C-alpha cells in the first residue's frame, strides 16, 4: 500500500526522535492519513485527543470526524496528541511548538483546535496541549491570531470546570452541525469579523454551540448556583444536544488511519448502534446517547468488508454499549464469521450479555481455552442491583456462568462498584458471596474428567462516581478513607470464602476516583484548581504512575476550594446544577423519578419492555418509535 507523500520536513530533528520513546508517535505519514495542499483549503482544523498517541488513535469518535472533515474539499483536518513526558520536556526546553502530524505545522497556525474530551482526568493534558501550542490558556486572553478552541465529547455535558479554557463547546454528536460551523467561519473570515463576533454568531445561529464567555453565573452564599444566564441578546438560555437519527446516512471512516505502532484498540471498529435500552442508573452514556439508534445490517456488512480491505487489520470489533441488544446481531455475526474465516481475521464481541445465544456466538469466534468471559453484576446483592436498575438477578448470573463453564470456559472476570447509593456491609459481603457461588457452580456442573483446569475468577471493583445527567447525580460520594475501608472489607470477605484460592481481587485507586468526582460535578470555580495543579506539575493524571495526589490537594488548598462540596455534600432535588443549562434529551423530571425509585429499591423495565417517559421520544426515531417502545408518557 502506498504511503502518503509528505510535502514538508518533520517538526522534530532526528536527534530528538532518537532520544524519545516511540518516535513513531510524532512523524505522521501513516497508511490512510490524509494529505492536502494547505493553500487549496479554506479552513485548517487540528483535531486533538489529549492523551498519548496509542490511546488517541483508538478513539472512534475522532476517526469519524477526521474522515468527515477531510471529505470536504475546503477543509483539511489533521491530528494532534499529547506528547509523552519525555518529549514534553524537550519541547519546553527547546521552545518547539506543538504540531499536527500530517503537515507537521504548528497548531497555532490553524483556524481551529478541536479537543475531544472523553475523561475528566485528562484536564491537565488539555492545558499541556494549549501551552505547548503557544495558545493562551484562557479564552478571554486570545486574539484574532489564535485558533478557535472547541471542545466536544461526553465531558462537554458538564463543561464548567474547564469552561475558562475553551471558546466553544459542541454539545452532542458531531456529524450534524460542523458543516454549518465551518461555513459560518469562512463567511466571518471573508468579511473581516473578529473572533468574538464569530463566537456570538455561532452561539446565536448554530444549534448545539455553547460559548462560555456569553454566560454569567451567580452563586448563593452556600456556594450553590443561584442563576446561570446569557449576557448577550439572542443567545439561548438552554442548549439542546445535537443527535444523528439515521446512522446509515452519516459518514463513517472506510479508510481509518492505520498506526505504525500498536494502538490500544488495534483493530477495525464497527459501530453497530448508539445508545442503550437498559437504563442503569449510574451510567452516564446510557442517558446521554438516548434514544437507541441502530445501523442497518446491510450497511454494516458493507462497512466491514470495505474497512478490512482498506486497513489490513487482523481483528474486527463491534462497538456498542450493549451489543446483545442489537436487533440483527445473529445475522451480522454469521456474516462476519464467514467473511473473517476467509481472511483469517478474528472477531471481538464486547458488551455482550451472558445468555445462551451470546455464549454460542462467542464459542464460535473465540478460543475458549485462552479467553476470559466478562460479567458486570456491578453489585453483590440483589437489593443493590435493583437500586441501580442493573436488570440482572443472581439466578440469571449463575445460570449464565454455568452455561459458560459447560461451553468450555473456566476463566471469568467480574466487575463491581463500591460506594453505590444505599450500600451496606451486607451488600459488600455479597460480592464475595457471589464470587464463591460462581466458583462453586463450576465444580457442581462440570464433571472432573471434563474440566480444562481449575476455575479462575478475577473480581475487580471500581469506586462509584456520581455523573451529570444520571439519576444518581444527586447522590453523595464516599471519601477516600470510606472507599479504602470498603475495598479492605471486600478483600477480607473474599479471603473468607471456601473458594478463596480461585478468586483474585483488584481495586481502583481511591484518590483518583475522588478527584474524578470533583471534576464530574464541578463548576467554574474548579478551573483555578486545575490550572494551579497543572503549573505544579500534574499531567497524565489518568495514568496511575503519573498521578500526584499531594499536588492536587495543595492546589485545592491554595485556591480555597473544598473537595467535599463537590463529592460528599448532600444535594436537594431543587438545586441548580452547573450543567442544568444543557439539555441532553432526557428530562430532569425523569431523572428525579428514577432517583426516587432507586431509593425505594424499585426497578424500571428497559425501553423495549415499557417506555418510562424519559423525554427522548421528542427526537422522533430510534427505539422510541419501535412497536414496543412507542412513548406512552
Overview of this structure, please?
The protein is α/β, with parallel strands linked by helices. Among the domains are: 14-240, Cobalamin-binding domain (Rossmann fold), CATH 3.40.50; 373-525 and 561-585, Transcription Regulator spoIIAA, CATH 3.30.750. It has 20 helices and 19 strands. The chain has a six-stranded mixed beta sheet with strand order 2-1-3-4-5-6. Mean pLDDT is 94; it is low at 1-6 and 628-633.
Q: What are the key terms here?
A:
Transcription Regulator spoIIAA; globular; alpha/beta; six-stranded mixed sheet; disordered C terminus; four-stranded parallel sheet
Short note summarizing the structure:
This protein has helices at 14-19, 53-56, 60-71, 85-94, 123-132, 178-190, 195-205, 285-288, 297-311, 329-343, 356-365, 382-387, 394-406, 425-445, 480-495, 510-520, 526-536, 549-558, 563-566, 588-599, and strands at residues 43-49, 75-81, 112-116, 148-152, 168-170, 209-210, 215-219, 225-230, 239-240, 268-271, 273-274, 293-294, 315-319, 346-348, 373-378, 411-418, 456-463, 503-507, 582-583. By secondary structure, the chain is of the alpha/beta class.
Amino acid at each position: 500500500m502506498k504511503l502518503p507523500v509528505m510535502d514538508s520536513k518533520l517538526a522534530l530533528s532526528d536527534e530528538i526522535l532518537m532520544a524519545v520513546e516511540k518516535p513513531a508517535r510524532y512523524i505522521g505519514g501513516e497508511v490512510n492519513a490524509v494529505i492536502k495542499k494547505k493553500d487549496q483549503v479554506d479552513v485548517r482544523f487540528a483535531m486533538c485527543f489529549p492523551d498519548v498517541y496509542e490511546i488517541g488513535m483508538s478513539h472512534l469518535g475522532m476517526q469519524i470526524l477526521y474522515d468527515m472533515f477531510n471529505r470536504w474539499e475546503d477543509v483539511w483536518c489533521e491530528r494532534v496528541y499529547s506528547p509523552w513526558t519525555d518529549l514534553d520536556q524537550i519541547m519546553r526546553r527547546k521552545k518547539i511548538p506543538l504540531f499536527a502530524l500530517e503537515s507537521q505545522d504548528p497548531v497555532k497556525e490553524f483556524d481551529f483546535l478541536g479537543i475531544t474530551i472523553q475523561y475528566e482526568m485528562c484536564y491537565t493534558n488539555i492545558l499541556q496541549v494549549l501551552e505547548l501550542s503557544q495558545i493562551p490558556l484562557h479564552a478571554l486572553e486570545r486574539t484574532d491570531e489564535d485558533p478557535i478552541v472547541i471542545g466536544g465529547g461526553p465531558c462537554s455535558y458538564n463543561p464548567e470546570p474547564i469552561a475558562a479554557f475553551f471558546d466553544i463547546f459542541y454539545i452532542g454528536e458531531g456529524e450534524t452541525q460542523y458543516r454549518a460551523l465551518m461555513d459560518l467561519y469562512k463567511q466571518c473570515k471573508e468579511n473581516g469579523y473578529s473572533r468574538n463576533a464569530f463566537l456570538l454568531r455561532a452561539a446565536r445561529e448554530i444549534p448545539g454551540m455553547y460559548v462560555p464567555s456569553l454566560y454569567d453565573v451567580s452563586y448563593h452564599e452556600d456556594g450553590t448556583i443561584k442563576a446561570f444566564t446569557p449576557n448577550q441578546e439572542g443567545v439561548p438560555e438552554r442548549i439542546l444536544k445535537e443527535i444523528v437519527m439515521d446512522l446509515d446516512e452519516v459518514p463513517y471512516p472506510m479508510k481509518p488511519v492505520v498506526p505504525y505502532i500498536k494502538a490500544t484498540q488495534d483493530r477495525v471498529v464497527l459501530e453497530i448502534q448508539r445508545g442503550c435500552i437498559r437504563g442503569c442508573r449510574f451510567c452516564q452514556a446510557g442517558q446521554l446517547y438516548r434514544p437507541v439508534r441502530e445501523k442497518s445490517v446491510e450497511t454494516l456488512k458493507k462497512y466491514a468488508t470495505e474497512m478490512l480491505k482498506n486497513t489490513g487489520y487482523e481483528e474486527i470489533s463491534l462497538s456498542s454499549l450493549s451489543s446483545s441488544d442489537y436487533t440483527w446481531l445473529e445475522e451480522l455475526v454469521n456474516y462476519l464469521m464467514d467473511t473473517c474465516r476467509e481472511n483469517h481475521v478474528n472477531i471481538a464481541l464486547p458488551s455482550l450479555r451472558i445468555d445462551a445465544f451470546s455464549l454460542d456466538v462467542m464459542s464460535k469466534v473465540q478460543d475458549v481455552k485462552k479467553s476470559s468471559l466478562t460479567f458486570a453484576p456491578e453489585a453483590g446483592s440483589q437489593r443493590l442491583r435493583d437500586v441501580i436498575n442493573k436488570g440482572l438477578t443472581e439466578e440469571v448470573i449463575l445460570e449464565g456462568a454455568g452455561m459458560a463453564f459447560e461451553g468450555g470456559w473456566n476463566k471469568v472476570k467480574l466487575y463491581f462498584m463500591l460506594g453505590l447509593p444505599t450500600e451496606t456491609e451486607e451488600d459488600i459481603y455479597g460480592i464475595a458471596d457471589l464470587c464463591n457461588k460462581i466458583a462453586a457452580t463450576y465444580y457442581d456442573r462440570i464433571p472432573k474428567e471434563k474440566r480444562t483446569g481449575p476455575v479462575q475468577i478475577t473480581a475487580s471493583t471500581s469506586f462509584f462516581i456520581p455523573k451529570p445527567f444520571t439519576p444518581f447525580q444527586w447522590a453523595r460520594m464516599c471519601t477516600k478513607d470510606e472507599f479504602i475501608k470498603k475495598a479492605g472489607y471486600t478483600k477480607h470477605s473474599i479471603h473468607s470464602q471456601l473458594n478463596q484460592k480461585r478468586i483474585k481481587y483488584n481495586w481502583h485507586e481511591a484518590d483518583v476516583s475522588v478527584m474524578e468526582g470533583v471534576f464530574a460535578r464541578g463548576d467554574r470555580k474548579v478551573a483555578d484548581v486545575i490550572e494551579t495543579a497543572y503549573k505544579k506539575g500534574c499531567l497524565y493524571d489518568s495514568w496511575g504512575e503519573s498521578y500526584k495526589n499531594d499536588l492536587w490537594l495543595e492546589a485545592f488548598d491554595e485556591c480555597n476550594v473544598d473537595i467535599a462540596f463537590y463529592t460528599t455534600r448532600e444535594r436537594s432535588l431543587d438545586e441548580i446544577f452547573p450543567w442544568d443549562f444543557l439539555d441532553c434529551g432526557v428530562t430532569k423530571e425523569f431523572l428525579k423519578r428514577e432517583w426516587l425509585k432507586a431509593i425505594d429499591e424499585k426497578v424500571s423495565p428497559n425501553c423495549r419492555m415499557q417506555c418510562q417517559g424519559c423525554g427522548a421520544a421528542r427526537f422522533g426515531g430510534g427505539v422510541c418509535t419501535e412497536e414496543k417502545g412507542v412513548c406512552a408518557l
